[in-house]
Specification:
Layout: H1 8-19, E1 29-32, E2 35-37, E3 45-46, E4 48-52, E5 55-60, H2 64-67, E6 74-77, E7 82-85, E8 87-89, H3 94-98, H4 113-124, E9 133-136, H5 152-158, E10 164-168, E11 172-175, H6 177-182, E12 197-200, E13 206-211, H7 214-224, H8 229-245, E14 248-253, H9 263-270, E15 277-282, H10 290-297, E16 305-306, E17 310-315, H11 337-353, E18 358-361, H12 364-378, E19 389-392, H13 398-407, E20 410-413, H14 416-428, H15 430-433, H16 439-444, E21 449-451, H17 464-472, H18 490-496, H19 499-504, E22 522-525, E23 542-547, E24 550-554
Parallel strand pairs: 1-6, 2-7, 8-14, 9-10, 14-15, 15-17, 18-19, 19-20, 20-21
Antiparallel strand pairs: 1-4, 2-3, 4-5, 7-22, 10-11, 11-13, 12-13, 16-17, 22-23, 23-24
Helix pairs in contact: 8-9, 10-11, 11-12, 12-13
Length: about 575
Amino acid sequence: MHSALKTTPLIFAGLAALMNPAAASDANLILYNGNIITMNENQPAATALAISGNRILAVGDDTLAEKFSTDKTRRINLQGKTVIPGLVDTHIHAIRGGQTYTSETYWYNETKLPHALKTLQEAAAKKQPDQWIAVVGSWLPEQFEENRAPTVAELSKAVLDHPVYVQYLYDYALLNEKGIETLKLNEAEPAIPQGIQVERDANGKATGKLLGHIGSYNALFAKMMPADRQQQLQSMQVFFSALNSAGMTGFIDPSAGPSSAYENLFALQMDGKLTLRAGYRIPAMQSGTEAEWFKNLMAFRQPYYDTGMVSFLGIGESIVAAMNDGVQMGPGFTSPQAAKDELRKVAQFAAQRRIPLEIHAYTNDAASDILTVFEDVNTTYPLQDLRWSLAHLNTGSEATLERMKKLGLSYTVQMGPYFEGPAILKANGEDIAAKSPPTRAAIDKNILVAGGTDSTRIGIYGIWQAIEYHVTGRSLGGVIQKAEDQLLSREEALALYTKNAAWIGFAEQNRGTLETGKQADLAVLDQSYLTVPAEEIDKIRSVLTIVDGKIVHENLTETPAAAQ
Protein backbone atom coordinates (compact mmCIF):
# COMPACT_ATOMS: atom_id res chain seq x y z
CA MET A 1 0.00 0.00 0.00
CA HIS A 2 1.21 3.52 -0.84
CA SER A 3 2.47 5.25 2.31
CA ALA A 4 0.27 8.33 1.67
CA LEU A 5 -2.83 6.21 2.14
CA LYS A 6 -1.87 5.48 5.75
CA THR A 7 -2.49 9.13 6.67
CA THR A 8 -5.92 9.30 5.05
CA PRO A 9 -7.87 9.76 8.34
CA LEU A 10 -5.62 12.67 9.30
CA ILE A 11 -6.00 14.18 5.86
CA PHE A 12 -9.78 13.95 6.12
CA ALA A 13 -9.69 15.50 9.58
CA GLY A 14 -7.59 18.36 8.27
CA LEU A 15 -9.88 18.88 5.32
CA ALA A 16 -12.91 18.93 7.62
CA ALA A 17 -11.30 21.67 9.70
CA LEU A 18 -10.52 23.71 6.59
CA MET A 19 -14.04 23.32 5.24
CA ASN A 20 -15.50 24.38 8.59
CA PRO A 21 -12.74 26.40 10.26
CA ALA A 22 -15.12 27.50 13.02
CA ALA A 23 -15.30 23.92 14.25
CA ALA A 24 -11.57 23.86 15.01
CA SER A 25 -11.12 26.82 17.35
CA ASP A 26 -12.51 28.88 20.20
CA ALA A 27 -14.47 32.08 19.76
CA ASN A 28 -12.80 35.45 19.45
CA LEU A 29 -16.19 37.24 19.69
CA ILE A 30 -19.44 36.21 21.38
CA LEU A 31 -22.71 38.12 21.21
CA TYR A 32 -25.27 37.09 23.82
CA ASN A 33 -28.50 38.17 25.53
CA GLY A 34 -29.86 39.30 22.16
CA ASN A 35 -32.73 38.72 19.78
CA ILE A 36 -31.11 37.00 16.82
CA ILE A 37 -33.16 36.74 13.63
CA THR A 38 -31.21 34.02 11.86
CA MET A 39 -33.33 33.72 8.66
CA ASN A 40 -32.56 30.01 9.02
CA GLU A 41 -35.82 28.07 8.83
CA ASN A 42 -34.39 25.26 10.94
CA GLN A 43 -33.45 27.64 13.76
CA PRO A 44 -35.31 30.91 13.21
CA ALA A 45 -34.35 32.55 16.50
CA ALA A 46 -31.53 32.50 19.03
CA THR A 47 -30.09 34.65 21.79
CA ALA A 48 -26.36 34.12 21.31
CA LEU A 49 -23.82 33.76 18.52
CA ALA A 50 -20.13 32.89 18.63
CA ILE A 51 -17.60 33.88 15.95
CA SER A 52 -14.20 32.34 15.29
CA GLY A 53 -12.09 34.07 12.68
CA ASN A 54 -14.35 34.84 9.74
CA ARG A 55 -16.89 32.10 10.49
CA ILE A 56 -19.83 31.57 12.80
CA LEU A 57 -18.76 29.02 15.39
CA ALA A 58 -22.19 28.46 16.95
CA VAL A 59 -25.71 29.88 17.16
CA GLY A 60 -27.90 29.12 20.16
CA ASP A 61 -28.69 30.23 23.70
CA ASP A 62 -26.62 32.21 26.19
CA THR A 63 -24.68 29.16 27.35
CA LEU A 64 -22.47 29.81 24.32
CA ALA A 65 -20.95 32.72 26.24
CA GLU A 66 -19.28 30.26 28.61
CA LYS A 67 -18.91 27.26 26.32
CA PHE A 68 -16.70 28.94 23.70
CA SER A 69 -15.00 31.70 25.71
CA THR A 70 -11.30 32.01 26.42
CA ASP A 71 -9.43 34.77 28.17
CA LYS A 72 -8.98 36.39 24.74
CA THR A 73 -12.66 36.30 23.77
CA ARG A 74 -14.56 39.56 23.54
CA ARG A 75 -18.05 39.07 24.93
CA ILE A 76 -20.79 41.59 24.19
CA ASN A 77 -24.02 41.66 26.17
CA LEU A 78 -26.53 42.80 23.57
CA GLN A 79 -29.08 43.72 26.25
CA GLY A 80 -31.91 42.51 24.04
CA LYS A 81 -30.78 44.14 20.79
CA THR A 82 -31.74 42.61 17.46
CA VAL A 83 -29.16 40.85 15.30
CA ILE A 84 -29.75 40.14 11.60
CA PRO A 85 -27.70 38.70 8.75
CA GLY A 86 -25.82 41.46 6.96
CA LEU A 87 -27.98 43.39 4.49
CA VAL A 88 -27.11 43.08 0.79
CA ASP A 89 -28.41 45.48 -1.85
CA THR A 90 -28.69 43.46 -5.07
CA HIS A 91 -29.15 46.44 -7.38
CA ILE A 92 -27.32 49.61 -6.40
CA HIS A 93 -25.04 51.80 -8.49
CA ALA A 94 -22.61 51.97 -5.60
CA ILE A 95 -19.41 52.12 -7.63
CA ARG A 96 -20.50 55.18 -9.60
CA GLY A 97 -22.48 56.80 -6.78
CA GLY A 98 -19.82 56.15 -4.20
CA GLN A 99 -17.21 58.14 -6.08
CA THR A 100 -19.36 61.30 -6.06
CA TYR A 101 -21.08 60.77 -2.71
CA THR A 102 -19.24 63.46 -0.77
CA SER A 103 -19.74 65.97 -3.60
CA GLU A 104 -23.53 65.61 -3.71
CA THR A 105 -26.42 66.99 -1.67
CA TYR A 106 -29.39 64.78 -0.81
CA TRP A 107 -33.03 65.67 -0.27
CA TYR A 108 -34.21 62.28 1.02
CA ASN A 109 -35.60 63.58 4.28
CA GLU A 110 -36.65 67.11 3.34
CA THR A 111 -40.36 67.89 3.68
CA LYS A 112 -40.32 71.67 3.14
CA LEU A 113 -38.92 73.43 0.09
CA PRO A 114 -37.24 76.28 2.04
CA HIS A 115 -35.36 73.69 4.08
CA ALA A 116 -34.30 71.88 0.92
CA LEU A 117 -33.00 75.15 -0.54
CA LYS A 118 -31.10 75.80 2.69
CA THR A 119 -29.18 72.54 2.22
CA LEU A 120 -27.85 74.01 -1.04
CA GLN A 121 -26.61 77.08 0.80
CA GLU A 122 -24.96 74.89 3.44
CA ALA A 123 -23.24 72.84 0.74
CA ALA A 124 -22.07 76.01 -1.04
CA ALA A 125 -20.44 77.29 2.14
CA LYS A 126 -18.11 74.27 2.11
CA LYS A 127 -17.04 74.50 -1.54
CA GLN A 128 -14.92 76.62 -3.82
CA PRO A 129 -16.93 79.10 -5.95
CA ASP A 130 -16.47 77.13 -9.18
CA GLN A 131 -17.63 73.82 -7.70
CA TRP A 132 -21.09 72.51 -8.47
CA ILE A 133 -23.83 72.07 -5.88
CA ALA A 134 -25.80 69.04 -7.05
CA VAL A 135 -28.93 67.14 -6.04
CA VAL A 136 -29.11 64.22 -8.43
CA GLY A 137 -32.37 62.27 -8.24
CA SER A 138 -34.14 60.51 -5.36
CA TRP A 139 -36.54 63.29 -4.50
CA LEU A 140 -40.12 64.08 -5.49
CA PRO A 141 -42.02 67.41 -5.71
CA GLU A 142 -44.89 65.81 -3.80
CA GLN A 143 -42.64 65.17 -0.77
CA PHE A 144 -42.62 68.90 -0.01
CA GLU A 145 -45.45 70.66 1.79
CA GLU A 146 -45.50 73.07 -1.16
CA ASN A 147 -46.20 70.10 -3.49
CA ARG A 148 -43.88 71.41 -6.20
CA ALA A 149 -40.31 71.54 -7.42
CA PRO A 150 -38.12 74.59 -6.85
CA THR A 151 -38.06 77.26 -9.53
CA VAL A 152 -34.93 78.43 -11.31
CA ALA A 153 -35.41 81.81 -9.62
CA GLU A 154 -35.46 80.15 -6.20
CA LEU A 155 -32.30 78.20 -6.97
CA SER A 156 -30.59 81.40 -8.13
CA LYS A 157 -31.68 83.31 -5.03
CA ALA A 158 -30.55 80.51 -2.72
CA VAL A 159 -27.08 80.22 -4.27
CA LEU A 160 -25.45 83.08 -6.18
CA ASP A 161 -21.77 82.24 -6.59
CA HIS A 162 -21.90 78.48 -7.30
CA PRO A 163 -23.46 76.62 -10.19
CA VAL A 164 -26.44 74.55 -8.99
CA TYR A 165 -27.79 71.40 -10.63
CA VAL A 166 -30.99 69.74 -9.39
CA GLN A 167 -32.05 66.60 -11.27
CA TYR A 168 -35.53 65.13 -10.81
CA LEU A 169 -35.03 61.40 -11.31
CA TYR A 170 -34.31 61.11 -15.05
CA ASP A 171 -37.19 63.39 -16.07
CA TYR A 172 -35.60 66.85 -16.07
CA ALA A 173 -32.91 68.97 -14.45
CA LEU A 174 -32.90 72.55 -13.19
CA LEU A 175 -30.04 75.04 -13.05
CA ASN A 176 -29.56 78.36 -11.30
CA GLU A 177 -28.27 81.40 -13.21
CA LYS A 178 -24.67 80.53 -12.38
CA GLY A 179 -25.27 77.02 -13.75
CA ILE A 180 -26.68 78.42 -17.00
CA GLU A 181 -23.58 80.60 -17.31
CA THR A 182 -21.17 77.77 -16.46
CA LEU A 183 -22.66 75.46 -19.11
CA LYS A 184 -22.67 78.34 -21.64
CA LEU A 185 -26.30 77.65 -22.51
CA ASN A 186 -26.77 81.07 -24.08
CA GLU A 187 -23.63 80.86 -26.18
CA ALA A 188 -23.16 79.44 -29.67
CA GLU A 189 -21.70 76.16 -28.38
CA PRO A 190 -23.15 75.10 -25.01
CA ALA A 191 -20.89 72.91 -22.87
CA ILE A 192 -23.30 69.96 -22.70
CA PRO A 193 -23.07 66.36 -23.95
CA GLN A 194 -25.06 64.95 -26.82
CA GLY A 195 -28.61 64.06 -25.83
CA ILE A 196 -29.21 67.02 -23.51
CA GLN A 197 -31.91 69.41 -24.72
CA VAL A 198 -32.01 73.01 -23.50
CA GLU A 199 -35.45 74.50 -22.89
CA ARG A 200 -35.60 78.07 -24.20
CA ASP A 201 -38.06 80.92 -23.85
CA ALA A 202 -39.69 82.91 -26.65
CA ASN A 203 -36.53 84.98 -27.02
CA GLY A 204 -34.30 81.93 -27.35
CA LYS A 205 -32.80 82.29 -23.89
CA ALA A 206 -32.21 79.23 -21.71
CA THR A 207 -34.86 78.90 -19.03
CA GLY A 208 -32.64 76.78 -16.79
CA LYS A 209 -34.46 73.52 -17.51
CA LEU A 210 -32.71 70.61 -19.22
CA LEU A 211 -34.24 67.49 -20.75
CA GLY A 212 -32.45 64.27 -21.56
CA HIS A 213 -32.21 60.56 -20.87
CA ILE A 214 -30.26 58.28 -18.51
CA GLY A 215 -27.06 58.25 -20.56
CA SER A 216 -26.99 61.96 -21.32
CA TYR A 217 -27.79 63.00 -17.74
CA ASN A 218 -25.05 60.73 -16.41
CA ALA A 219 -22.58 62.14 -18.93
CA LEU A 220 -23.49 65.70 -17.95
CA PHE A 221 -23.20 65.04 -14.24
CA ALA A 222 -19.84 63.33 -14.72
CA LYS A 223 -18.51 66.60 -16.22
CA MET A 224 -19.58 68.48 -13.09
CA MET A 225 -17.92 66.26 -10.52
CA PRO A 226 -14.25 66.34 -9.44
CA ALA A 227 -12.00 64.25 -11.68
CA ASP A 228 -9.32 63.78 -9.03
CA ARG A 229 -9.01 60.04 -8.50
CA GLN A 230 -7.85 60.31 -4.89
CA GLN A 231 -10.87 62.42 -4.04
CA GLN A 232 -13.13 59.86 -5.72
CA LEU A 233 -11.45 57.06 -3.79
CA GLN A 234 -11.94 58.84 -0.48
CA SER A 235 -15.56 59.53 -1.37
CA MET A 236 -16.12 55.84 -2.08
CA GLN A 237 -14.69 54.91 1.32
CA VAL A 238 -16.98 57.41 3.06
CA PHE A 239 -19.96 56.03 1.15
CA PHE A 240 -19.15 52.44 2.00
CA SER A 241 -18.84 53.42 5.65
CA ALA A 242 -22.29 55.00 5.45
CA LEU A 243 -23.63 51.72 4.06
CA ASN A 244 -21.95 49.82 6.90
CA SER A 245 -23.65 52.11 9.42
CA ALA A 246 -27.01 50.94 8.06
CA GLY A 247 -26.05 47.31 8.57
CA MET A 248 -25.03 46.61 5.00
CA THR A 249 -22.35 44.02 4.42
CA GLY A 250 -22.52 43.72 0.64
CA PHE A 251 -23.94 44.91 -2.65
CA ILE A 252 -24.26 44.01 -6.30
CA ASP A 253 -23.67 46.80 -8.80
CA PRO A 254 -25.55 46.05 -12.05
CA SER A 255 -23.55 48.48 -14.21
CA ALA A 256 -20.95 51.03 -13.25
CA GLY A 257 -19.98 52.19 -16.74
CA PRO A 258 -16.57 52.11 -18.45
CA SER A 259 -13.62 50.17 -17.09
CA SER A 260 -12.13 53.26 -15.44
CA ALA A 261 -15.13 53.38 -13.08
CA TYR A 262 -14.04 50.11 -11.44
CA GLU A 263 -10.43 51.08 -10.77
CA ASN A 264 -11.04 52.61 -7.34
CA LEU A 265 -13.03 49.57 -6.22
CA PHE A 266 -10.16 47.29 -7.17
CA ALA A 267 -7.70 49.66 -5.50
CA LEU A 268 -9.60 49.38 -2.20
CA GLN A 269 -9.62 45.61 -2.57
CA MET A 270 -5.88 45.39 -3.19
CA ASP A 271 -5.16 47.70 -0.25
CA GLY A 272 -7.35 45.63 2.06
CA LYS A 273 -9.65 48.60 2.70
CA LEU A 274 -12.96 47.23 1.44
CA THR A 275 -15.56 47.16 4.19
CA LEU A 276 -18.31 45.60 2.04
CA ARG A 277 -18.47 42.58 -0.22
CA ALA A 278 -18.75 44.09 -3.69
CA GLY A 279 -20.36 42.14 -6.50
CA TYR A 280 -20.44 43.64 -9.96
CA ARG A 281 -21.87 42.97 -13.40
CA ILE A 282 -20.56 44.46 -16.64
CA PRO A 283 -22.84 46.22 -19.14
CA ALA A 284 -22.44 46.45 -22.91
CA MET A 285 -20.32 49.45 -23.85
CA GLN A 286 -21.04 49.44 -27.57
CA SER A 287 -24.45 49.74 -29.20
CA GLY A 288 -25.64 47.50 -32.01
CA THR A 289 -22.91 44.88 -31.68
CA GLU A 290 -23.39 43.89 -28.04
CA ALA A 291 -22.94 40.16 -28.69
CA GLU A 292 -19.46 40.78 -30.07
CA TRP A 293 -18.68 42.99 -27.07
CA PHE A 294 -19.66 40.31 -24.56
CA LYS A 295 -17.83 37.54 -26.41
CA ASN A 296 -14.63 39.59 -26.34
CA LEU A 297 -15.22 40.52 -22.69
CA MET A 298 -15.71 36.92 -21.61
CA ALA A 299 -13.01 35.33 -23.75
CA PHE A 300 -10.63 34.82 -20.83
CA ARG A 301 -13.08 35.13 -17.95
CA GLN A 302 -15.01 32.59 -15.90
CA PRO A 303 -18.83 32.85 -16.00
CA TYR A 304 -18.71 34.14 -12.42
CA TYR A 305 -16.26 34.02 -9.55
CA ASP A 306 -15.82 35.18 -5.98
CA THR A 307 -12.50 36.39 -4.57
CA GLY A 308 -13.89 36.90 -1.08
CA MET A 309 -14.55 40.61 -0.97
CA VAL A 310 -15.12 41.18 -4.69
CA SER A 311 -17.15 38.94 -6.98
CA PHE A 312 -17.88 39.04 -10.70
CA LEU A 313 -21.51 38.16 -11.36
CA GLY A 314 -21.83 38.23 -15.12
CA ILE A 315 -23.48 40.80 -17.34
CA GLY A 316 -26.10 43.49 -16.80
CA GLU A 317 -28.08 45.76 -16.65
CA SER A 318 -28.16 47.28 -20.13
CA ILE A 319 -27.39 44.25 -22.27
CA VAL A 320 -28.73 45.45 -25.60
CA ALA A 321 -29.26 49.20 -25.78
CA ALA A 322 -32.32 49.19 -28.03
CA MET A 323 -34.08 46.68 -25.75
CA ASN A 324 -33.76 49.02 -22.77
CA ASP A 325 -36.91 51.04 -22.02
CA GLY A 326 -35.06 53.44 -19.73
CA VAL A 327 -37.46 54.97 -17.23
CA GLN A 328 -40.59 54.76 -19.37
CA MET A 329 -43.59 54.67 -17.06
CA GLY A 330 -46.46 53.53 -19.26
CA PRO A 331 -47.23 51.09 -22.06
CA GLY A 332 -46.15 51.45 -25.65
CA PHE A 333 -42.48 50.49 -25.61
CA THR A 334 -41.41 48.51 -28.66
CA SER A 335 -37.99 47.21 -29.58
CA PRO A 336 -36.84 46.82 -33.20
CA GLN A 337 -36.33 43.36 -34.65
CA ALA A 338 -32.61 43.98 -35.00
CA ALA A 339 -32.39 44.55 -31.24
CA LYS A 340 -34.29 41.34 -30.52
CA ASP A 341 -31.92 39.47 -32.81
CA GLU A 342 -28.93 40.95 -31.00
CA LEU A 343 -30.37 40.02 -27.62
CA ARG A 344 -30.90 36.48 -28.90
CA LYS A 345 -27.20 36.27 -29.77
CA VAL A 346 -26.19 37.59 -26.35
CA ALA A 347 -28.62 35.31 -24.51
CA GLN A 348 -27.55 32.23 -26.47
CA PHE A 349 -23.91 32.95 -25.75
CA ALA A 350 -24.57 33.63 -22.05
CA ALA A 351 -26.76 30.54 -21.66
CA GLN A 352 -24.26 28.30 -23.43
CA ARG A 353 -21.42 29.60 -21.24
CA ARG A 354 -23.70 29.65 -18.15
CA ILE A 355 -22.99 33.33 -17.55
CA PRO A 356 -25.32 35.04 -15.05
CA LEU A 357 -27.19 38.13 -16.20
CA GLU A 358 -29.64 40.72 -15.01
CA ILE A 359 -31.58 42.74 -17.56
CA HIS A 360 -33.45 46.02 -17.21
CA ALA A 361 -37.21 46.10 -17.89
CA TYR A 362 -39.17 49.00 -16.43
CA THR A 363 -42.40 48.19 -18.22
CA ASN A 364 -44.42 45.09 -18.93
CA ASP A 365 -43.98 45.70 -22.67
CA ALA A 366 -40.20 45.66 -22.42
CA ALA A 367 -40.31 42.53 -20.27
CA SER A 368 -42.59 40.81 -22.78
CA ASP A 369 -40.15 41.43 -25.64
CA ILE A 370 -37.25 40.15 -23.54
CA LEU A 371 -39.13 37.03 -22.45
CA THR A 372 -40.05 36.17 -26.05
CA VAL A 373 -36.33 36.08 -26.87
CA PHE A 374 -35.48 34.13 -23.71
CA GLU A 375 -38.20 31.57 -24.39
CA ASP A 376 -36.68 30.94 -27.80
CA VAL A 377 -33.18 30.53 -26.35
CA ASN A 378 -34.56 28.22 -23.65
CA THR A 379 -35.51 25.62 -26.26
CA THR A 380 -31.81 25.06 -26.97
CA TYR A 381 -30.09 26.13 -23.77
CA PRO A 382 -32.30 25.70 -20.66
CA LEU A 383 -32.29 28.78 -18.44
CA GLN A 384 -33.77 27.14 -15.35
CA ASP A 385 -30.58 26.98 -13.26
CA LEU A 386 -28.70 30.06 -14.50
CA ARG A 387 -30.06 32.55 -11.92
CA TRP A 388 -30.96 35.09 -14.58
CA SER A 389 -33.10 37.96 -13.35
CA LEU A 390 -35.32 40.77 -14.55
CA ALA A 391 -34.80 44.08 -12.76
CA HIS A 392 -37.44 46.71 -11.93
CA LEU A 393 -40.56 45.38 -13.71
CA ASN A 394 -42.63 48.17 -12.21
CA THR A 395 -45.75 47.33 -14.24
CA GLY A 396 -45.30 43.57 -14.62
CA SER A 397 -48.51 41.62 -15.23
CA GLU A 398 -49.59 38.23 -13.88
CA ALA A 399 -48.97 36.74 -17.33
CA THR A 400 -45.43 38.13 -17.40
CA LEU A 401 -44.70 36.70 -13.96
CA GLU A 402 -45.98 33.29 -15.10
CA ARG A 403 -43.64 33.38 -18.09
CA MET A 404 -40.74 34.25 -15.80
CA LYS A 405 -41.61 31.38 -13.49
CA LYS A 406 -41.66 28.85 -16.34
CA LEU A 407 -38.20 29.96 -17.41
CA GLY A 408 -36.84 29.87 -13.87
CA LEU A 409 -36.06 33.58 -13.87
CA SER A 410 -35.74 35.53 -10.65
CA TYR A 411 -36.85 39.10 -10.00
CA THR A 412 -34.83 41.92 -8.47
CA VAL A 413 -37.18 44.61 -7.21
CA GLN A 414 -36.12 48.20 -6.55
CA MET A 415 -37.49 51.47 -5.20
CA GLY A 416 -38.54 53.18 -8.44
CA PRO A 417 -42.29 53.28 -7.67
CA TYR A 418 -41.58 54.79 -4.25
CA PHE A 419 -40.56 57.96 -6.08
CA GLU A 420 -42.33 57.44 -9.39
CA GLY A 421 -45.80 56.73 -8.00
CA PRO A 422 -47.37 59.87 -9.54
CA ALA A 423 -45.92 59.14 -12.99
CA ILE A 424 -46.89 55.45 -12.87
CA LEU A 425 -50.41 56.38 -11.79
CA LYS A 426 -50.77 58.92 -14.58
CA ALA A 427 -49.42 56.56 -17.26
CA ASN A 428 -51.18 53.33 -16.22
CA GLY A 429 -54.18 54.07 -14.04
CA GLU A 430 -54.95 53.18 -10.45
CA ASP A 431 -55.27 49.40 -10.83
CA ILE A 432 -51.71 48.95 -12.08
CA ALA A 433 -50.19 51.71 -9.94
CA ALA A 434 -51.63 50.17 -6.77
CA LYS A 435 -49.71 46.94 -7.47
CA SER A 436 -46.45 48.52 -8.60
CA PRO A 437 -44.01 46.89 -8.26
CA PRO A 438 -45.65 43.43 -8.27
CA THR A 439 -43.52 42.05 -5.44
CA ARG A 440 -46.37 40.34 -3.62
CA ALA A 441 -47.60 38.58 -6.76
CA ALA A 442 -44.09 37.37 -7.61
CA ILE A 443 -43.52 35.94 -4.13
CA ASP A 444 -46.93 34.25 -4.21
CA LYS A 445 -45.90 32.53 -7.45
CA ASN A 446 -42.74 31.24 -5.75
CA ILE A 447 -40.48 33.38 -7.92
CA LEU A 448 -37.21 34.12 -6.16
CA VAL A 449 -37.35 37.84 -5.38
CA ALA A 450 -34.27 39.74 -4.22
CA GLY A 451 -34.19 43.36 -3.12
CA GLY A 452 -32.31 46.39 -4.35
CA THR A 453 -32.66 50.14 -4.04
CA ASP A 454 -31.42 51.40 -7.44
CA SER A 455 -29.77 54.22 -5.56
CA THR A 456 -28.20 56.67 -5.73
CA ARG A 457 -30.32 58.29 -8.48
CA ILE A 458 -33.73 56.67 -7.99
CA GLY A 459 -33.48 54.95 -4.61
CA ILE A 460 -32.31 55.63 -1.08
CA TYR A 461 -29.09 53.89 -0.12
CA GLY A 462 -28.99 51.89 3.10
CA ILE A 463 -31.93 49.54 2.37
CA TRP A 464 -34.13 50.41 5.38
CA GLN A 465 -36.36 52.82 3.45
CA ALA A 466 -36.84 50.12 0.82
CA ILE A 467 -37.80 47.59 3.50
CA GLU A 468 -40.25 50.06 5.03
CA TYR A 469 -41.80 50.60 1.60
CA HIS A 470 -42.34 46.84 1.17
CA VAL A 471 -43.99 46.65 4.59
CA THR A 472 -46.18 49.78 4.42
CA GLY A 473 -46.85 49.99 0.67
CA ARG A 474 -46.84 53.76 0.93
CA SER A 475 -45.01 55.71 -1.76
CA LEU A 476 -43.26 59.01 -1.09
CA GLY A 477 -45.75 61.73 -0.29
CA GLY A 478 -48.53 59.14 0.11
CA VAL A 479 -49.40 59.32 -3.58
CA ILE A 480 -49.88 55.54 -3.72
CA GLN A 481 -51.02 53.35 -0.83
CA LYS A 482 -51.02 49.66 -1.63
CA ALA A 483 -53.84 47.49 -0.34
CA GLU A 484 -53.22 45.19 2.63
CA ASP A 485 -53.06 42.12 0.39
CA GLN A 486 -50.16 43.66 -1.55
CA LEU A 487 -47.88 44.18 1.46
CA LEU A 488 -44.99 42.02 2.64
CA SER A 489 -44.49 40.80 6.18
CA ARG A 490 -41.39 42.06 7.94
CA GLU A 491 -39.76 38.65 7.61
CA GLU A 492 -40.51 38.52 3.87
CA ALA A 493 -39.09 42.01 3.36
CA LEU A 494 -35.93 41.17 5.29
CA ALA A 495 -35.46 37.98 3.28
CA LEU A 496 -35.19 40.01 0.06
CA TYR A 497 -31.99 41.63 1.36
CA THR A 498 -30.47 38.67 3.21
CA LYS A 499 -30.95 35.05 2.17
CA ASN A 500 -32.52 35.84 -1.22
CA ALA A 501 -29.79 38.38 -1.94
CA ALA A 502 -27.17 35.76 -1.12
CA TRP A 503 -28.77 33.36 -3.61
CA ILE A 504 -28.67 35.95 -6.40
CA GLY A 505 -24.95 36.35 -5.69
CA PHE A 506 -24.24 32.57 -5.71
CA ALA A 507 -23.33 32.89 -2.02
CA GLU A 508 -26.16 31.11 -0.20
CA GLN A 509 -23.79 28.41 1.07
CA ASN A 510 -21.72 31.05 2.85
CA ARG A 511 -23.99 33.98 3.65
CA GLY A 512 -27.57 35.22 3.92
CA THR A 513 -28.48 33.36 7.11
CA LEU A 514 -26.83 33.10 10.51
CA GLU A 515 -25.79 29.46 10.78
CA THR A 516 -22.85 27.52 12.15
CA GLY A 517 -20.03 27.41 9.61
CA LYS A 518 -21.21 30.36 7.52
CA GLN A 519 -19.21 33.54 7.09
CA ALA A 520 -19.71 36.07 9.86
CA ASP A 521 -21.56 38.87 8.06
CA LEU A 522 -24.11 40.44 10.40
CA ALA A 523 -25.49 43.60 11.98
CA VAL A 524 -26.68 44.52 15.47
CA LEU A 525 -29.52 47.04 15.26
CA ASP A 526 -30.35 50.03 17.42
CA GLN A 527 -34.08 49.22 17.33
CA SER A 528 -36.18 46.08 17.27
CA TYR A 529 -36.95 45.46 13.61
CA LEU A 530 -39.94 43.21 14.35
CA THR A 531 -41.68 45.59 16.74
CA VAL A 532 -40.71 49.15 15.81
CA PRO A 533 -43.67 51.03 14.23
CA ALA A 534 -43.72 50.29 10.50
CA GLU A 535 -43.38 53.96 9.55
CA GLU A 536 -40.14 54.17 11.57
CA ILE A 537 -38.35 51.21 9.99
CA ASP A 538 -36.39 53.61 7.78
CA LYS A 539 -34.76 55.09 10.89
CA ILE A 540 -33.15 51.79 11.95
CA ARG A 541 -29.36 51.83 12.01
CA SER A 542 -26.62 49.44 13.00
CA VAL A 543 -24.61 49.76 16.19
CA LEU A 544 -22.28 46.93 15.18
CA THR A 545 -21.63 45.69 11.64
CA ILE A 546 -19.37 42.72 11.01
CA VAL A 547 -18.07 41.65 7.60
CA ASP A 548 -16.08 38.43 7.26
CA GLY A 549 -15.63 38.33 11.01
CA LYS A 550 -14.20 41.86 11.19
CA ILE A 551 -15.94 44.81 12.82
CA VAL A 552 -16.33 47.50 10.14
CA HIS A 553 -18.72 49.76 12.05
CA GLU A 554 -19.22 50.14 15.78
CA ASN A 555 -21.37 52.56 17.74
CA LEU A 556 -22.02 50.31 20.69
CA THR A 557 -21.82 51.47 24.28
CA GLU A 558 -20.88 48.67 26.64
CA THR A 559 -21.05 48.71 30.40
CA PRO A 560 -18.10 47.16 32.25
CA ALA A 561 -20.22 44.14 33.03
CA ALA A 562 -21.32 43.78 29.42
CA ALA A 563 -17.80 43.72 28.01
CA GLN A 564 -16.34 40.91 30.02
